[in-house]
Amino acid sequence: MTDRLLIVDFGSQVTQLIARRVREAGVYCEIHPFQSVDPARLKEFAPRGIILSGGPASVTEGAAPAAHPAIFTAGVPVLGICYGEQTMAQQLGGTVESGHHREFGRAEVEVKASSALFDGVWAPGDRKQVWMSHGDRVTKLPAGFEVIAASPNAPFAAIADEKRRYYGLQFHPEVMHTPDGAKLLRNFALGIVGARGDWTMAAFRERALADIRRQVGRGKVICGLSGGVDSSVVAVLLHEAIGDQLQCVFVDHGLLRKDEAEQVVRLFRDHYNIPLIHADASEQFLKALAGVTDPEQKRKTIGALFIDVFDAEAKKIGGAEFLAQGTLYPDVIESVSFTGGPSVTIKSHHNVGGLPARMKMKLVEPLRELFKDEVRALGRELGLPPDLVNRHPFPGPGLAIRIPGDITREKLDLLREVDAVYLDEIRKSGLYDEIWQAFAVLLPVRTVGVMGDGRTYDQACALRAVTSTDGMTADYFPFDHAFLGRVANRIINEVRGINRVTYDITSKPPGTIEWE
Ligand code: XMP
Predict the structure, then answer these.
(1) 10-35 mean pLDDT
(2) CA-to-CA dists, residue 439 to 120, 172, 303, 395, angstroms
(3) Which of ligand 1's atoms lies nearest the C-alpha of 299?
(4) What is the rounded average pLDDT of the residues 106-119?
(5) Element holding 146 (H helix, E strand)
(6) Pick the catalytic residue: 82, 223, 248, 461?
């Protein structure tokens, strides 16, 4: 079995980043809420090392969350980060006090002693930048610990008990603002824990293939294909595992970008030879959407019809026991709930949300353990084309939520043209991979313009491009003016029906990425 690390979550906003850094070191790890980590979980998961995350609580308050004592008798290395350091220090006999100074942001630590945690990265006397975010701090160390780095506001910024292999960091090594943080986590996972670092996508692929074959046997599997990265990777992986026991269904709601439906069919049916049903339901969707203007109503209408069409196609195929889905790890991480709010906001708008319950099929979810970056890496490992692997996220309701007001075929066609010119320019400028999402919005506004000697009275559009790491927050992309001018010029000249182009400079929050 692959060596595993357990991350005990105390509700920090950045716990997922710890997991990503550890996995980047080639070590498999999972995040479990602190309440769920008891002797039974420890025995079952059999971690080779444990990381205690940060969190919003204060150990100086009465009902503060604690790490199960079994964590400290498991005989494996433990790394406490921020709140994790504080609870570890307190639980092992040290003292934590409410900070006289709240410290938030960049800070400098001075390395006080050499440590296995700093091996090859930091040496005594070094001054290094870290990211602090805490109100409390450790003021007395538990027996066996020594200070290995300090800052003016956090005299115990890093502590270690090298004998028991317990380490504590007041700062956050998992965030980018601690430039050496990833290396420290790597030292913990590989050097201190001694994990093998053999969690690679090539190894994952082999294991996933075996798992799929074991689960499915000779059964038939249906997979919904959307043209996005996740479902594409699921389809290709399953096809490699079980060949033509897989049947893909592509519900074409007619709300995709220009030429996208044809590309999906060409790639999967013609290139990969995957059995694929192209259910062209665009007429049905247009009919159902006629007169619907409220964004949530659009989503509901599309979601419900999507399930109907998919279900009908599945019935036609008949005899399928399994449904394959591209569920990812962030969708299945249990969240810590003691603060009222979840540590990870889970997107409520899944493309095929209601399918499993309605279809009463067993689920095959081979990507359940993976983060999005890992799915992309797996896609590359499987040989999927780079432009598909690196494709921007695209919402399930498609262009319907990029046309404020009611949806008609004419509007969809117009938007597809605008969008195609915009993306073409982005690709030509080499900016595609720097952007999280870029798209055009068709505005329900007509404006006056001049073209040649004539007056025009046509529609306006908005262009949107954002950078983001997870879609939860986003900044507008700072195109230069020459680029924006060129795109606007091309759109107005090439797309009949559009005579004004605007660029959306709203960040999220307060805006959202999509307009609806
Ligand atoms: P917002 O607009 O909420 O979008 O800032 C965040 C991310 O979610 C995508 N999105 C959706 N995806 N169904 C989806 O599958 C939806 O109804 C939906 N609404 C927004 C959006 O494209 C962005 O990536």
Answers:
(1) 95
(2) 45, 35, 21, 11
(3) 17
(4) 97
(5) strand 146-151
(6) 82
